[in-house]
């Protein structure tokens, strides 16, 4: 299933504050699209609008040509990680995943599969209270993968990952794109982003200010500083 993420003239105001203004972009299947900008630029608000967690003031956001809240099988269409803290500390990783896959009506075999995908098989029976931030980040990604979604939306997925975890994430994101998934990732790690992204979007003060293909010669740090100053 193809699941293009399309944002058209998306705007969100909170009272007198405009968090996102007239943002338009497309994240196509088979690519990793990086969403870059300083804190408070509007990245997370935009991602939350794409996922139906925040209602736009105006504009539209669709996944596979459909608003997320109207998708017939949302977990099979789009998986998301907006934070890696929403876990019951007394559960094991395996228990946590079984709760989510049962609620979504997914087969039991998906749990072992996503644990393997995220390198958590050996820690599957440990309580989440003993997990490091990096392990929680992997578990959040495993949860997003339960429905084998066509699109992945990840907000700062490198947070808490050690160098081995960052190396794993880079390969994982590239593999997802190779498999034809649509991957949209917000990040502050510019040097690492350059190693896995195909396209970069720059947002500042709620507006999309620049976008560019990413090649080995692209200087993301220079472009970031120019676009967000």
Overview of this structure, please?
- With 229 residues, the protein is of the alpha/beta class.
- The chain has a single domain (5-87, 149-228), classed as P-loop containing nucleotide triphosphate hydrolases (Rossmann fold), CATH 3.40.50.300.
- Helices cover 34% and strands 27% of the residues.
- It is built from eight helices and nine strands.
- The protein has a six-stranded mixed sheet, sandwiched between helices. Strands 2-1-4 form a three-stranded antiparallel sheet, covered by helices on one side.
- A hairpin with a 2-residue loop joins strand 8 and strand 9 (207-213).
- Helix 3 packs across helix 4 (109-117), helix 4 packs across helix 5 and helix 6 (163-178) runs parallel beside helix 7 (190-196).
- It is globular.
- The mean pLDDT is 94.
Entry summary:
By secondary structure, this protein is of the alpha/beta class. It has one domain (5-87, 149-228): Rossmann fold, CATH 3.40.50.300.
């Amino acid at each position: 299933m193809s699941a293009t993420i399309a944002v058209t003239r998306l705007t969100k105001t909170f009272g007198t504050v405009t968090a996102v203004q007239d943002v338009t972009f497309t994240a196509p299947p088979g690519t990793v699209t990086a969403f870059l900008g300083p804190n408070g630029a509007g990245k997370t608000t935009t991602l939350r609008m794409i996922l139906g967690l925040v209602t736009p003031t105006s504009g539209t956001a669709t996944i596979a040509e459909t608003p997320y809240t109207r998708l017939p099988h949302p977990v099979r269409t789009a998986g998301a990680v907006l934070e890696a803290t929403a876990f019951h500390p007394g559960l094991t990783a395996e228990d946590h995943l079984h709760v989510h896959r049962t609620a979504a009506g997914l087969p039991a075999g998906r749990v072992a599969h996503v644990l393997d995908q995220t390198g958590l098989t050996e820690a599957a029976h440990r309580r989440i209270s003993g997990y490091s931030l990096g392990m929680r980040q992997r578990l959040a990604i495993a949860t997003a993968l339960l429905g084998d979604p066509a699109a992945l939306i990840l907000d700062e997925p490198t947070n808490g990952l050690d160098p081995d975890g960052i190396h794993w994430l880079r390969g994982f994101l590239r593999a997802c794109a190779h498999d034809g998934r649509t991957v949209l990732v917000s990040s502050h790690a510019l040097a690492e982003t350059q190693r896995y992204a195909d396209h970069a979007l720059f947002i500042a003060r709620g507006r999309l200010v620049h976008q560019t293909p990413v090649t080995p010669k692209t200087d993301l740090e220079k472009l970031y500083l120019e676009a967000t100053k």
